[in-house]
Amino acid sequence: MIGLSPIIDKQSDIPVYKQLYTYIRQEIEAGALRENERLPSIRQLSAHLVLSKNTVETAYQQLHAEGYVESKPRSGMHVVPIERIELTTAAMQMSDKETKPLQNPDLNNQPLFDFQYGDVDLDSFPLKIWKKCLVDALQHDSYEIFGYGDPQGNGELREQLVKYVYQSRGVVCSSSQVFLCSGTQQAISLLCQLLPLSQRVAMEEPGYDGVRTVLANHGRDIQPIPLETDGIEVNSLRQQSVKAVYVTPSHQFPLGSVLSAQKRSKLLQWAYEVEGLIIEDDYDSEFRYQGQPIPALKAMDIGDRVIYLGTFSKSFLPAVRMSYLVLPEQMAISFRKALAPYSQSVSPLLQKAMLLFMREGHYERHIRKMRKLYQTRHRALLKAIQQHMGHRVEVIGQKAGLHMLLDVRNHDNRDLIKLALQHGVKVYSPNHHWMNPSHVPSSYVMLGFGGMNDKKVEEGVLRLKKAWFSE
Ligand SMILES: Cc1ncc(COP(=O)(O)O)c(C=O)c1O
After folding, report:
1. C-beta of 208 in contact with ligand 1 (< 6 A)
2. Is residue 130 in contact with ligand 1, taking CB distance under 6 Å?
3. From ligand 1's centre to the CA of 269, what distance in Å?
4. How far from chain centre, in Å, is Cα 232?
5. In this structure, what CATH number is given to the domain that contains residue 217?
């Protein structure tokens, strides 16, 4: 039967007829249902989707009322030619404006399949437990919760982090070396303000634009260093007169490579020789799907030259705005002094809740659960790409994390993004992560899958195939 296969969520607050109506409307707008095409009868569609006839009829009535379909005698509902739809919807929007309060225009045009990088799976978030931790934190109605708190961060939470980074990343440190921050960018900002961080800072090319912007805004000159398949070109770094480098060794952002063991030693060697600093951003190391877990670079740092950055944004929630720095011992002493006039930027209440969440073992359980879930989703995405796009695309960086890049050969990503959107799918350009515009491979698109519903992965890929290869 006709290719109408909406994903209907009967548990959703959105009425089923509305979900069906929205799906058909978007199919018409995307051109997947062509003008004059006949919609299945109410009876056929209700049997096909196992929905009541009333539900289908109400969806059809809504589409009819809005001018998307018209009824033809003895042959049922047909899609109205697109120019007429544009006219009717424009007219309806005008009359809506006159009669209704303003609505957020984006809400009505949200793509059905959004491969946004940075989103995490909210359906599996342990909301009940987190709420309980927040409420329990509030029971401690002391100055500890309601005041500014320790500028370095809650001491007990830092103790938890000491255990965590040791057990999961092999990093040995004490809580006096740990500093709570409200995200990676704020951590970098503090490093620029409070450390004698050199004027020139090297970064992987491509590298995380979020960090590069902060470094640049603090007046640092950035030296891009090319990448090889196993990470940053250390030889090229050696040729520069820099004393600090920002790297993502466990999962290079955005290309996804892993810094090889040999390169790790070479990079540390460089830092020891020039008495430089390595800023290690370990943003998503919890999610690794192939091979052995790789210890952090910091775990090998016998010469105390690595600053380690961890974040809760991928492993917990971006909204909690919580990350941490682990500084070399001596540096931590001067950093703490310099930090004294600053107030801690993470709410003491949230810190206490996170302490309870970690202390009760919820954090580790959550990570274990999410690792499995993301692994399944990651596998489903790769399988769908291989099955439906085959050799026409190359997947880049597929061993870890919550995103991957696709090289859609011989295509320009501006066109790819536009075409995808016309089919209800949002994919993203990674171009801004390259510092030198002439290095940008314009056929790359970025797909984040953390916030993507499992059931939508394959359908999303099928739509991309339709959009990009007209099949
Ligand atoms: C390379 C990299 N580092 C760190 C982060 C996390 O940043 P934050 O801790 O500010 O949420 C991200 C998130 O997108 C990232 O891509």
Report:
1. yes
2. no
3. 27
4. 23
5. 3.40.640.10
Report the pLDDT value the prediction gives residue 2, as an integer from 0 to 100: 54
Residue 121: inside a domain, yes or no? no
The alpha carbon of 69 and the centre of ligand 1 are apart by a number of angstroms equal to: 45
Q: Give DSSP secondary structure letters for 46-71.
A: HHHHT--HHHHHHHHHHHHHTTSEEE
Separation of CA 385 and ligand 1 centre (Å): 26
Q: Is the C-beta atom of 55 inside 6 A of ligand 1?
A: no
pLDDT in tens, 274-289: 999 999 999 999 999 8
Q: What are the φ and ψ backbone dihedral angles of 266, each rounded to 5 degrees?
A: -65, -40
- Structural domain includes residue 116: no
C-beta 185 within 6 A of ligand 1: yes
The total number of structural domains in the chain stands at 3
Range of the domain at 290: 127-360
The pLDDT of residue 103: 37
The conformation of residue 142, written as its DSSP 8-state character, comes to S
pLDDT at 177: 98
Boundary-marking domain end, from 103, 136, 158: 103
Nearest CA owner, ligand 1 atom 13: 118
Count of residues for the chain?
471
Among candidate residues 166, 254, 162, the one with its CA nearest the CA of residue 203: 254
Give me the pLDDT at residue 91, please: 47
Tokens of 248: 């993502």
pLDDT value for 66:
77
State the Cα–Cα distance between residues 111 and 22, nearest whole angstrom. Answer: 11
Helix (H) or strand (E) holding 201: strand 200-205
Domain membership of residue 418 (yes or no) is yes
Q: Which residues of the chain have pLDDT under 50?
A: 1, 87, 90-91, 93-108
Nearest CA to 230 among 266, 259, 203?
259
For 314-365, the three-class secondary structure string (H helix, E strand, C coil) is CCCCHHHCCEEEECCHHHHHHHHHHHCCCCCCCCHHHHHHHHHHHHCCHHHH
Give the tens place of pLDDT for each residue, 69-123.
888 878 888 988 766 655 455 445 444 443 333 333 333 456 789 999 999 999 9
* Whole-number pLDDT of residue 100: 39
- Specify whether 141 is located in the same domain as 193: yes
Which DSSP helix (H) or strand (E) runs through 28?
helix 16-29
Distance CA 135, CA 124 (A): 20
What percentage of the chain's residues is helix, strand, coil (to nearest 5)?
Answer: 50, 15, 40
One domain for residues 230 and 252:
yes
Instruction: Enter the tokens of residue 174.
Output: 């004490």
For ligand 1, whether the C-beta of 253 sits within 6 Å is yes
d(CA 214, CA 218): 6
- Ligand 1 neighbour 250 (Cβ under 6 A): no
